[in-house]
Amino acid sequence: MTNTTTIPTLAGDGSFTAYRAVPAGTPKAAIVVIQEIFGVNAGIRRKCDTLAEAGYLAIAPDLFWRLEPGIELDPDVKPEFDRALELMGQFDQDKGIADIEATIRAARSELGDGAKVGAVGYCLGGRLAFMTAARTDIDASVGYYGVGIDGLLGEKHAIANPVLLHVPEEDHFVDKDAQAAMHAGLDDHPKVTIYDYAGEDHGFATEFGERRSDVSAKLADERTAAFFAEHLR
Q: Dienelactone hydrolase domain location, by residue (predicted)?
């Protein structure tokens, strides 16, 4: 079952919508799905649906609601891609993390005491997943091709729960120096695992469109599924 839910902000100054996919049986845990710069579009909704099919309550908050509520963009259409970049430039990431935390609280409230909540994010969401691991009590976090994580390494000491990062080696938004810095800063972190994907570019695990690289996407998603099965039980 899928629907849209409304979540109040932590500050109590507003509310935002979230796409919600519910499994057929009792959820074994919840996973917050963190959008790319393209909004909660068909690809992000499909990520939620797949997680629900695997037994999780999946919730994708509309993090751009303060800028343009409900926006959905196609990365393969240049004007829409350009609009996504504009929104990214206007987006307040600290408020985004607060909205993710509000979503975590809503999920825990729905599932009850002791319920575990994970997060998985893509692109901008991959960066936010790392920030969520450092700034909230999320139980497990996965980031696909997160941008600018090398600039967040000063927060790594605050990561208390498992983190998995998928890094395409030919990511045109994350150069080799940034990737090397990520490895240098995180390879010895007891809670962080990094997988590299040779020959792959940014967006390789998208559900739809030209960016998808099917073999590597399936491998990354299998690793993510195993990670959540281990840490959200």
A: 16-231
Q: Does the global pTM surpass 0.90?
A: yes
List the beta bridge partners of residue 60: 19
List 62, 171, 221, 231, catalytic entry: 171
Measured from the Cβ of residue 198, the count of other Cβ atoms closer than 10 Å reads 8
- Whether 166 sits among the annotated catalytic residues: the reply is no
50-83, pLDDT tens digit by residue?
Answer: 999 999 999 999 999 999 999 999 999 999 999 9
Among 150, 202, 221, 231, the one annotated catalytic: 202
Within 8 A by CB and 6+ apart from 215, the residues are none
- Tell me whether residue 202 is one of the annotated catalytic residues: yes
Q: 2-231 — its CATH code?
A: 3.40.50.1820
